[in-house]
Amino acid sequence: MSTEHPRVLMAIGFAMVLVGAVAPFLMVSKVIPTSFALCFLSYGASVAGMMIALIASALKAETKPV
């Protein structure tokens, strides 16, 4: 199965959004130390995951038989 398959892309996007949501929670809970790079990485993972999931859902809608 290639990474262009909509289900794989959707799973990757979901995982990235999940990392983008869990990392700030762990930073606020002081489980992991807060740094600018980690905050930026968390935000970037969340935004990129949303975009990948959006593209995957558009691909799934396009390839679905009528």
Précis, in short:
By secondary structure, the chain is an all-alpha fold.
Q: Which structural category do the helix and sheet elements fall into? A: mainly alpha
What is the percentage of strand-forming residues? under 5%
Give the helix tally: 2
Run of helices and strands: HH
Features:
elongated; 77% helix; mainly alpha
How would you portray this structure in words?
This protein is mostly helical and 66 residues long. The protein has one domain. The protein is built from two helices and no strands. The protein has helices spanning 6-28, 36-63. Helix 1 packs antiparallel against helix 2. It is elongated, with a radius of gyration of 15 Å. The model has no long low-confidence stretch (mean pLDDT 89).
Question: What topology does this entry show?
Answer:
Elements: H1 6-28, H2 36-63
